[in-house]
Automatic annotation (TrEMBL):
InterPro entries: Cell_wall_metabolism_enzyme, Dup_hybrid_motif, M23ase_b-sheet_dom
Any one Pfam family match given in the protein's UniProt record, by short name: Peptidase_M23
Domain of life: Bacteria
Residues covered by the M23ase beta-sheet core domain: 197-294
Location of the region described as Disordered in the Swiss-Prot/TrEMBL record: 1-31
Listed name of the protein: M23ase beta-sheet core domain-containing protein
Listed PANTHER family: MUREIN HYDROLASE ACTIVATOR ENVC, PEPTIDASE-RELATED
Coiled-coil boundaries: 121-150
One GO MF term: metalloendopeptidase activity
Matching Gene3D superfamilies: Glucose Permease (Domain IIA)
Organism: Microbacterium album
Keyword Transmembrane: yes
TM region positions: 55-79
Lineage, broadest ranks: Bacteria, Bacillati, Actinomycetota, Actinomycetes, Micrococcales
Alphabetic keyword roster: Coiled coil, Membrane, Transmembrane, Transmembrane helix
């Protein structure tokens, strides 16, 4: 045997004696081995499979069917009831309201005269008559209101007997300006700014003392005027300046609006009408629209 020979067989051994014979040859065949394995697996599965008993299987199946019926049938019925369609009539029936009318209620009787106008001309005439009646009513109300205001003014300004002007001395004068009261017939009271909103001069004098126009001019207002009481306002021009004079709280008025007056002419008499606490003349003088103090402007 050479050094390179790795075979374990001895040189003197017969190789034919190593070939498989009989059962050994059958076992070593690959196809036979696989067939044997499959047959053994089938026998093992058959031996492990449970044996089905017909009566027990039928009872189990019946119990399962009963359980399914007991659960499925009520559920199906519930689903059917929930899916029932609701109509508009059903909703309206739930929301319906009722009205009960008492038997004592009577229908108003409509007079046929209310519908006497049947033609456009008659309707227009009826509307015109209604409008005329409405205007007449408004005029009557306005007249009643004016009469009430006049009565109130008369009550607030009681008439007093005037005193003859000749019993008084002539008022003082300086140029074209005359003092509004006779000397010695008055005492000086509040002047400009003496009280809140006081814009003139108060000259205290007995009721009925004559009041004179301080300059030539034209009467712009003559009548009752709220807090001023009986008021005479006239406009004049003195030394080229526009002068407005207001004489307030008179007992009676001797001139009318639009009348021209002369300096020293009687325009009224001292009183206590309007917002006044005692007989006096309240005189305001405005020169070119600005208020001046009569105490220093008058002569």
């Amino acid at each position: 045997m050479s050094e390179n020979d790795s075979s374990p067989v001895a040189p003197d051994t017969d190789r034919t004696s190593l070939a498989p014979t009989g059962a050994e040859a059958r076992v070593s065949s690959p196809a036979l081995v696989r067939s044997t394995i499959r047959r053994a697996e089938r026998e093992a599965r058959r031996a492990a499979a449970p044996r089905i008993r017909p009566l027990r299987a039928a009872g189990t199946l019946a119990a399962v069917a009963a359980l399914i019926a007991g659960v499925a049938v009520p559920a199906y019925a519930a689903i059917r009831s929930e899916g029932t369609a609701v109509t508009i009539h059903d909703v309206a029936a739930d929301q319906a309201q009722s009205l009960v009318v008492a038997s004592e209620v009577e229908k108003p009787k409509i007079a046929g005269s209310n519908y006497s106008a049947t033609t456009p001309e008659e309707i227009a005439q009826a509307r015109a008559e209604k409008a005329a009646a409405e205007r007449a009513r408004e005029q009557a109300e306005a007249a009643a209101a004016a009469a009430a205001a006049a009565a109130s003014a008369a009550a607030a300004a009681p008439a007093t007997a005037s005193v003859a002007p000749q019993t008084y001395a002539a008022p003082a004068a300086s140029g074209s300006v005359v003092y509004p009261l006779s000397p010695g017939s008055y005492t000086v009271g509040q002047s400009l700014g003496a009280g809140r909103g006081h814009q003139g001069l108060d000259l205290l004098a007995p009721t009925g003392t004559p009041i004179y126009a301080i300059a030539d001019g034209v009467v712009s207002y003559s009548g009752y005027s709220g807090a001023y009481g009986n008021l005479v306002t006239f406009n004049s021009t003195v030394d080229g300046a526009a002068v407005e004079v207001r004489n307030a709280h008179m007992s009676t008025i001797a001139v009318s609006a639009g009348q021209a007056v002369s300096a020293g002419e009687i325009i009224g008499y001292v009183g206590s009408t309007g917002r006044s606490t005692a007989p006096h003349l309240h005189i305001e003088i405005r020169v070119n629209g600005g208020i001046v103090d009569p105490l220093y402007w008058l002569p």
